[in-house]
Specification:
16% helix, SH3 type barrels, 9 helices, single chain, binds calcium ion, 435 residues, Fumarylacetoacetate hydrolase, domain 2, 8-stranded mixed β-sheet
């Protein structure tokens, strides 16, 4: 299990001066990994620092940082090869990058030619999916969210299913539809059936929603049949991204029993482009909330496994000002990502480099801290006010949703950047006669 080291020094500064601003998301204490290209060129792996990207593909070619000796790992279109090297290499690589960018280190800062080759302006870069997503699992681990949704779907007596306090509930989602921030989403089609209708009809979803989530990325794999303690699982997680799990509530209501969500969650899942490493989050560790019921031993967590991360959801209608729909914190999650991973592997299920685990919608204790419109508008019954006197129950075409997140330390931030997606009208459906 990682501990604090020089890379967490709150007083550390970089010679990339924009990294030292009070509200800079990409401080020298952060150093998240992403995949970028410039002007339609090849994809390279980069590390964000202030308003720049350190081109790790070039840095490795120049021999300044070599995580795997002679074998190169940063000349790839995703960071999976680097993640597979494991926590000791992640940590030594982070320390080497920290040294290279530290204000007292002159190796790179004083070599203007080299700086031009390896430091690029973030504003000129196109960001891509940072990982090859091997599998995507979606959990349901916020007690507030599960209670709010349970009341709407099943009534207050059955709000939390009897298993909920004993295990992180999840289902296997679609890796193929995980997309990077900025990707536009078409409103989905599906079977809809109102409670007073006898039979379903096929139409574009009318209750398209967001889910504010956090994505944990598995770095080192487990073999088929191998099981994990929660502490083992913690060490296997490479990093985290913001995650918006687009959800068609009307499709979900009709389809979800008995096997759980299917088409309602399959349209798209958007993640932020920068993977903030678990090591960067070490100073922000907090315990999960007090247990309502004791957990079985395999889910026991002997060290704080949650993180104190401020989260926000913004809605921007077409040609109108942005409004904040929700502000909450990751620390409210009842089960940590390490507990989710330990539970996932408990059956002997092989976990892979690049597996993405969605936390489940993150909701706090009140309406202004809920992570979905379903909860914010009480199932569409209480519209929320947005710009120019307009209101929303669920998303309309051409709405843009932005998730933001950051950890606040004394004098610097560790930020996640943004997770953005715009809703476009439904496509013409080939199988729908009336379309
Ligand atoms: Ca979800």
């Amino acid at each position: 299990m990682s501990t604090l080291n020089k890379t967490h020094d709150p007083a550390a500064k970089s010679w990339v001066e924009t990294a030292n601003l009070l509200e800079a998301e990409f401080s020298i204490q952060n150093l998240p990994f992403g995949v970028f290209s410039i002007g339609g060129g090849d994809k390279d792996i980069g590390v964000a620092i202030g308003d720049r990207i350190l081109d790790m593909t070039a840095i490795e070619q120049h021999g300044l940082v070599r995580p795997d000796g002679e074998r190169t790992v940063f000349d790839r279109a995703e960071i999976n090869s680097f993640m597979a090297l494991g926590p000791a290499v992640w940590s030594s690589t982070r320390a080497a990058i920290f040294d290279l960018l530290h204000i007292d280190n002159h190796d790179l800062r004083d070599d203007a030619d080299l700086c031009r080759q390896v430091l690029v302006a973030m504003s000129e870069a196109t960001m891509h999916l940072p990982i090859y997503v091997r599998s995507y699992t979606d959990f349901y681990s916020s007690q507030e969210h599960a209670t709010n949704v349970g009341i709407m779907f099943r009534g207050p007596e059955n709000a939390l299913p009897p298993n909920w306090l004993h295990m992180p509930i999840g289902y296997n989602g679609r890796a193929s539809t995980v997309v990077v921030s900025g990707t536009e989403i078409h409103r989905s089609w599906g079977q809809l059936k109102a409670p007073d209708e006898d039979a379903p009809h096929f139409a574009p979803c009318e209750r398209l929603d967001i889910e504010l989530e956090f994505g944990a990325i598995v770095g080192t794999p487990t073999a088929l049949g191998e099981t994990l303690t929660v502490a083992d699982a913690y060490d296997k997680i490479f990093g985290y991204v913001l995650l918006n799990d687009w959800s068609a509530r009307d499709i979900q209501t009709w389809e979800y029993q008995p096997l759980g969500p299917f088409q309602s969650k399959a349209t798209a899942t958007t993640i932020s482009p920068w993977v903030v490493t678990r090591e960067a989050l070490e100073p922000f560790r907090v315990s999960t909330p007090e247990r309502v019921k004791p957990l079985l031993p395999y889910l026991h967590e002997d060290a704080p496994g949650n993180f104190d991360i401020n989260l926000e959801v913004q809605l921007t209608p077409e040609a109108a000002a942005s409004v904040t729909l929700s502000a909450t914190n990751y620390k409210y999650m009842y089960f940590s990502s390490a507990q989710q991973l330990a539970h996932h592997a408990a059956s002997g299920c092989a976990m892979c480099t690049g597996d993405l685990l969605g936390s489940g919608t993150i909701s706090g204790p009140d309406r202004s801290s809920c992570g979905s419109l379903l909860e914010i508008t009480s199932g569409g019954k209480e519209p929320v006010s947005i710009a120019d006197g307009a209101t929303r129950t669920f998303l309309e075409d051409n709405d843009t949703v932005t998730l933001k997140g950051y950890c606040q330390a004394d004098g610097h931030r560790v930020g996640f950047g943004m997770c953005v997606g715009k809703v476009l009208p439904a496509v013409v459906h080939r199988g729908h006669a009336g379309a």
